[in-house]
Amino acid sequence: MSDARCEEFRELLSAFVDESLDGGELLYLERHLRECAACRLFEEELRRLKGLLQAAEAFRPPRRPPAGFAAMVTARLDREAPVRLVAFPEAPVRRVTRRPWIGMIAAAAAAAIFFAWSWQRLLPVDSPEQKLASPSIAAGVDVAAADNGSMDTWMREHAMLARDSTLLGPAEEIEFARFRADAVPER
Amino acid sequence: MSVTNGELDPGVGDGERQLVAAARGGDHRAFEALVLKYQSRVYRLIQRMVSGSDVVDDLAQEVFIRAYRSLGDFKGESSLYTWLYKIALNLCRNHYRTRGRRPAHEELEEADGAIGLEAAGGTPEDEVSRREFWDQLRRGLDELPAEQREAVVFCDLEGMSYEEMASVIGVPIGTVRSRIFRGRRALQGLLAPFHGSAAAAPGRPT
Cβ contacts (< 8 Å) between A51 and chain B: which residues? Predict the structure, then answer.
């Protein structure tokens, strides 16, 4: 007899008559079918219904398209304006979004760098700014590590230059002031 | 590939690919060749989904017009007929929405009159039984929720596999399975006089 437990097998039975069950579900259902007469009857009804639906068009065959159907479709296309014409891609093409402002920013940055470099070249050779920007300062730690003996000389020299410079912040001013007090004679 | 009503799924072969490429290039004659190839399938599907000669003619034509206009979206990842079925399904759904509450079997009676059923032959009694069955089937399909009707038509009338249905309808296979089951269950009640026993089927081939 059919019971509440059979209800879970009914959907499986529907897929079963379509031969769309496999693996564990198929085994599970077949085991139940061996034990349950109500589900075997339901399976038989489903097969009858499916057969009847499939046979329905033997009773009333579908109408075929009217003669000249394809020509009618293309005649309609001929009357319309052309639509977008694109090549048939072999593989999906990744679309790249164009951002014209990126080029403008790059050009402005290049111009600014060139201007700064040109201005640097125009400064007097012995100006404090130019000396502070010298390669030895840029290499800072390496210079000190390479020659500890010349460190004090180097710092004193640059502390003198920095005193009048606007390039240093408050922390650097205090550090250089300590050097001035210890070792750098006033000019 | 899968089999649909005994016909091999054509996929997108070289010849078809060339026709699609030419159609994309604006060659209407190439597109006409594609229409010729698929018109019967599309026409048959639409008749199974909706009724009424005029409606079927209009929808079938619209399927191909829309297909032409959106050929750029066809990537060739599925077969062309699967892609056409998706377009046809969307148009049928729009038709259900705009048709309102008017059942398709009324359109069928008005538009098709008495044609068709006599094609199966047999006695006049057989013909009456067939007509009753057909009317009941149409009425039953009409009364199903649209998603169950689509699933039953694709499965039992079109003979599509669950995988193909999942691709065309755009839902998981489990959902397809559930919709087919619920649709069949609803039809079982309506068609009980015809499928109650094998002998009760009107003019059923033996």
Answer: 201, 204
Enter the tokens of residue A30: 């077949």
Is the pLDDT confidence value at A148 over 60? no
**Site of tokens 């191909």:** B64
Phi–psi pair at B7, nearest 5 degrees: -100, 135
Report the greatest alpha carbon distance in chain A.
Answer: 118
Give the whole-angstrom CA distance, residue A173 versus residue A162. 8
Of the listed ranges A21-25, A81-85, B176-180, the one predicted with least confidence? A81-85
Average pLDDT over residues A122-135: 48
Per the CB < 8 Å rule, is B64 touching A73? yes
Q: Decide if A156 contacts A120 (C-beta within 8 A).
A: no
Q: H or E element: which one contains B150? A: helix B146-152
Give the C-alpha separation, B64 to B55, whole Å.
15
- Burial-class residue A165 by CB neighbours within 10 Å (0-12, 13-18, 19+): middle
Greater confidence, B118 or B163? B163
Distance from CA of A17 to the nearest CA of B (A): 11
CB of B31 within 8 A of CB of A74? yes
- Tell whether B203 lies on the interface with A, counting CB pairs under 8 A: yes
The residues, ordered by sequence, that sit 6+ positions from A184 with a Cβ below 8 Å of its Cβ are: A156, A159, A160
* Contact criterion met (CB below 8 Å) for A164 and A127: no
Kind and range of the H or E element at B7? strand B7-8
Residue from the list B32, B162, B180 with its beta carbon closest to the beta carbon of A70: B32
The C-alpha atoms of residue A51 and residue A30 are separated, in whole angstroms, by 21
Q: Is the ipTM reported for this complex over the cut 0.95?
A: no
| Backbone φ and ψ of B3, nearest 5° | -115, 130
Residue B66: Cβ-neighbour burial (10 angstroms; 0-12, 13-18, 19+): middle
Helices B28-49/B80-99 angle, 10° precision: 50
Q: Most B CBs within 10 Å: which of A9, A12, A59, A94, as the mutation test of the B interface?
A: A59
Cα pseudo-dihedral B67, B166, B55, B70, rounded to 10: -10
For residues B195 and A52, the answer to whether their CB atoms sit within 8 Å is yes
Nearest to B24 among A53, A57, A88 (CB): A88
The more confident residue out of B190 and B195 is: B190
